[in-house]
């Protein structure tokens, strides 16, 4: 049996090999046949000089010879002033065969991505004139020194980086026939190895560098510098972070001091403000923001693109990076993530006060989540297809607003007049129209606010940065924040209810206490249960029985008093009893 299984396994492997053949040499990088093995000799002439000798070098890509890769350390201003004695230097002497055509030597580095540009152009069969545009230095063969090239290059840089030396046959675009290569590498600021450029550091040096970078980042100039956002916008983000942090501490303290009946409402609001606090901190530090860059394509076509890591370095004021001149739009994805987490908790507060049914809660939770996701995805999509997500977000927005206007007020009225008034205040604050009294208008206003901000992206940088920052301010921050946001951007979300905008006395309202004790009630065993329709029906039946018993006792008492008022004897009263 084992032999049969082994044979079956072998047959299966052979079948897989036939179905998926191994790569041939045509699919792999072409390497010419080696008639003579390459030979490399490295000698240390001194502590700062390394000599490298190469015999019979190998061609790469069938068109070029890689002379070597060298790690150049960061240079100082003092070294730059004396380039002949203190700067790193590469001295190259390359000898070719007499019968071969002349060759050209190119110097590249990875500080300005010239090495990547060379490989792209070289592999695409570009001419040497195009390759020389990407090179840091180009050395051609002189007829007086033929058949060899003898040259040197002084190198400087602001940080450690690699340099590459390549020999190319520009006439026939074939691999140059190099016999020998002699390189003298003078490295006064490194040990000549590649460890400095590879980023390898000892733990103490890495810790010291991280500490210095963190301390430098705490400077006001660096704190207020966030790509895509104006300094005024960053200031507003830090301001709201501070306000929301204070609100979180206040709700936590009030929740710990409150009675058990009201404690859940305080803690639920504490969760909302805490998540919002962290989202503001992320956006203020630039971690919750993704800049979009407006780039003009061929024939005047305009498109928005996400920034690359190198675009975050906008250069110096005297020598700005080309990305700094482009129009930017800050995509605050931290705001959308905070909405996705906090809006269900805000709706939960409304449900606890009104005592809405289970089906209403599930429907509104679903519509709220889908509305936030649609508008968040639409903000991330830079193509015109984002308007489709905007349309679906509007549909789910209507699915949330209609129950808030029609179903929840009815449920609040059943709880009593005080609960109905409390819900009216919270609903107006949630929908941002306490002064108008027409919460239905928020369905029409917020989608258009999204169109002008997240949808259009069509503003100049500073104006758009500050306006977008104001647009994402939560009224949870304070009443002043609510007054600031409403006139400028009518609504940030139909449910940006911040319970900090409501006075603290709201949670001390009798309706809030009844909501906590009635909807989050206790059974005789002490277990917390979520009140539903069955519990409310049982409570109504108990109330009816209690009222009936009270009326019967009152009638019996009236009858007894009336009999005692007559002149009958005590025996008659006893008989009547």
UniProtKB/TrEMBL annotation:
Keywords: Membrane, Signal, Transmembrane, Transmembrane helix. It is a multi-pass membrane protein. The keyword Ubl conjugation does not apply. Residues 567-577 have a biased composition (Basic and acidic residues). Residues 555-577 are annotated as: Disordered. One of its GO terms (cellular component) is plasma membrane. Residues 1-19 form the signal peptide. It is found in: Membrane. The chain crosses the membrane at residues 232-253, 265-283, 336-355, 362-381, 387-410, 422-449. Belongs to the archaeal/bacterial/fungal opsin family. This is Integral membrane protein. It comes from Guillardia theta (strain CCMP2712).
